[in-house]
Amino acid sequence: MIHQALTTIANALNAHLKSNLGHNEDIVALSALKSPDGSRDNHSVNKVAITLVNTAFDAAMRNLGYRTQGLGNTVQSPPMALNISMLVTSSFNDYHESLRFHDEVVAYFYQHPVHEQVSDKISKLTIEPLMLSYEDNRNIWQALGCSYMPSSVYMVRIIAA
């Protein structure tokens, strides 16, 4: 579900950026920003990179409880819901280009906070910006082992179908 959700978001953001900024090639990539050997991930160079930084179950959805369905003893669990944090980074060699792309990223997520009927497994994605403290933001970049680049962190709520 996580891969499908991030891929859906990446594809939608990519279409928006290609349309608004007049590019023919793909601009958005799912990327860890660094390869396991510590070098920069080539998939993120001169791209907008989407990186998973945290995953948590949505306790509120889980606490809805189970429902009995029909006349029998069929028990239906509540739909699974996950909250994931994604870092969206404008990873361009030219800082001005990074800022230009990041402006479009912020605008896209502001204009498109909900994606519905994503697939047969995901009924809804909601995307909202996370307001991180300076220290929390620094900690993410330290954990990734990267120097800071223009970026935002978003909480994505995935609701299973």
Structural notes for this entry:
The protein has helices spanning 2-21, 59-62, 95-111, 134-144; strands at residues 28-30, 47-57, 67-69, 74-76, 81-91, 114-116, 122-129, 151-160. Strands 1-2-5-8-7-6 form a 6-stranded mixed sheet. It has a two-stranded antiparallel sheet with strand order 3-4. Helix content is 32%, strand content 32%. The longest helix has 20 residues, at 2-21. Strand 3 and strand 4 form a beta hairpin.
> Can you count the beta strands?
8
* Relative helix content: 25-40%
Q: Which structural class is indicated by helix and strand composition?
A: alpha+beta
- What is the makeup of the main sheet? 6 strands, mixed
Give the helices and strands as they follow along the chain: HEEHEEEHEEHE
Number of helices: 4
Arithmetic mean of pLDDT: 89
Principal-axis shape? globular
Poorly predicted ranges:
none
- Terminal CA distance: 11 Å
In angstroms, what is the radius of gyration? Answer: 18 Å
Q: DSSP strand (E) fraction?
A: 25-35%
Strand order of the largest sheet: 1-2-5-8-7-6
Features of the shown structure:
globular; alpha+beta; 4 helices; six-stranded mixed β-sheet; 8 strands; single chain; two-stranded antiparallel ribbon; 161 residues
